[in-house]
Amino acid sequence: MRFISTRKFTWMICGIGCFIALISIFFLPGNIPIHFTNGIADNYVGKIQIFLFPIIQILIVFLTGREKIKYCLTHSKTPLTDTQYNWIVDGVLLLVIVAEVQIIYASFA
């Protein structure tokens, strides 16, 4: 349980997102849907855009690791412990992975 509340786990989640994008780039069609209206895709982008998700994850991990940002969030009126802070960051990263997988799945459906 101690490993889950560390920054190593956070970087591991980020690495999983990068790995998913790297593997899926070989199987994705030329255009992937990114916007849907009533379940119908109405906006497409090139498949290289799938790497925006890992870029977002890397930015989130890098910026949340900065001491000034972490200090502001852990020393507010309702302070967070380091474990709670890491869980919040991990949750955001997992949401980005879910969005990435949803876009990959929608491009094959």
From TrEMBL:
For whether the record's keyword set contains Membrane, the answer is: yes
Q: Which InterPro entries match?
A: DUF1648
What's the protein here called?
DUF1648 domain-containing protein
Bilayer-spanning residue ranges: 9-28, 48-65, 85-108
Query: Could you confirm whether the keyword Transmembrane appears in this record?
Result: yes
Domain DUF1648, residue spans: 12-58
Keyword annotations for this protein, in alphabetical order, are:
Membrane, Transmembrane, Transmembrane helix
Please name the source species.
Mediterraneibacter hominis
